[in-house]
Amino acid sequence: MKPIKVALVGCGAIAHVMHLPGLRSMAEMGKVELVAVADTFAEKAQAAAEAYGVPRHFTELEQLLAEVEFDLLVNTTVIPSHFAVSLAALRAGKHVYTQKPMAATVAEATILIDEAARRGVRLASAPEHRVRPLIGKIKELFEQGVIGRVNFAKVRSSHGGPEKHFIAASPRDSTWFYKPGSDPILDLGVHGLSQITSILGPVRRLAAFSGRTLPVRYMVEGGPFSGKRIDVEIDDNSLLMLDFGDAAFAFLDATYCMEASLAPRLEIYGSEGTLAVMETRGDEPPDLRLYQSKTKSWAPVEVPPTPPVKDLGVLHLVDAIRESRPHLLTGEHGRHLLEIMTKAPLAAAEGRTVTMETVF
């Protein structure tokens, strides 16, 4: 079976941390061939091409689409560019995997979904949690009724702020995280939302609290950016209440205000037990635990091993294309997450519960 020819657009941090290493692993497995990269900054595109042995690099998407034959575009551009880049690729008849959020509005997301259907190509959206073995195992246990009827869940999606988060390993200026167009819901909450909706399904209603705790932050470490002042222009502290229907609820935090926690990352409470995902570090395997009322005890749950590829989302889409089977990281799921993330600030500002209009 021939490898899928891939072009990657956007050679920033997420590309170098996840997608480019992942594509290199997939190439070694014979699944893909990375044929081009692009970035608006010529030096970034050239550096990525040289580091990963990519034959061609570009600064203009239009030129890439016109001159290179490929099957799948991986969109790792900055958030405001996601919609335009994906739409151009879909119109050119390419499959698309886009980083989150897939667009700025639900209307834009719908345009992408409709365009992919019109062209007969795939549209997939990060985050990749639905295809991670941990979430797959939890969903399997949920569907088997191992903990009975689910009543509510707690989802932790916070840390102490991007100016402190993994800065030593990858120095960067975190100022843009605190500008309009970004917030902890889009940055962090999307991961928890992806996880809990992958398990429990679409959210029907939501309510939220949101506010700004600090007017100014400072880069704590990170080489040339250490000590830089960051003016906080967005809410850095948001709490969401999610209604899945039939009295099944979830509480999700999405803040830059959590310095440390001893709480599980995810807990789901049922009528006959509890599932808990404990905190792990680095490359440690997932720590999933099950409490059952009939035994009145906790026990570890074995989780299938994670494939040795950093980019599980693109790997999943590539395999689905090669094997002509449906993919799980659908545009419809990405659109539903986007609706939650855009309506949460509205619910908080207006002090009301809002109803979701999308499903997946």
Protein model, in words:
With 360 residues, the chain is α/β, with parallel strands linked by helices. It is built from 9 helices and 17 strands. It has helices at residues 13-28, 42-52, 61-67, 82-91, 106-119, 133-143, 184-200, 312-323, 331-350, and strands at residues 4-9, 32-38, 56-58, 72-75, 95-98, 123-125, 150-156, 205-211, 216-218, 229-231, 237-243, 249-255, 266-270, 273-278, 287-292, 297-301, 354-355. Strands 16-15-14-13-7-12-11-8-17 form a 9-stranded mixed sheet. A hairpin with a 4-residue loop joins strand 15 (287-292) and strand 16 (297-301). Helix 5 (106-119) runs antiparallel to helix 9, helix 6 (133-143) crosses helix 7 (184-200) and helix 7 (184-200) crosses helix 9. The longest helix is centred in the last third of the chain and has 20 residues, at 331-350. It is globular. The mean pLDDT is 96.
Overall helicity = 25-40%
Q: What's the story with the biggest beta sheet? A: 9 strands, mixed
Write out the strand line-up for the largest beta sheet, numbering strands in chain order. Answer: 16-15-14-13-7-12-11-8-17
Estimate the mean pLDDT confidence: 96
Number of strands: 17
Radius of gyration: 21 Å
Q: How would you describe the shape?
A: globular
Which runs of at least 5 residues are low in confidence (pLDDT < 50)?
Answer: none
Question: How large is the share of residues in beta strands?
Answer: 15-25%
Distance between the termini: 31 Å
The number of helical elements comes to 9
Q: Encode the helix/strand succession as letters.
A: EHEHEHEHEHEHEHEEEEEEEEEHHE
Structural class: alpha/beta
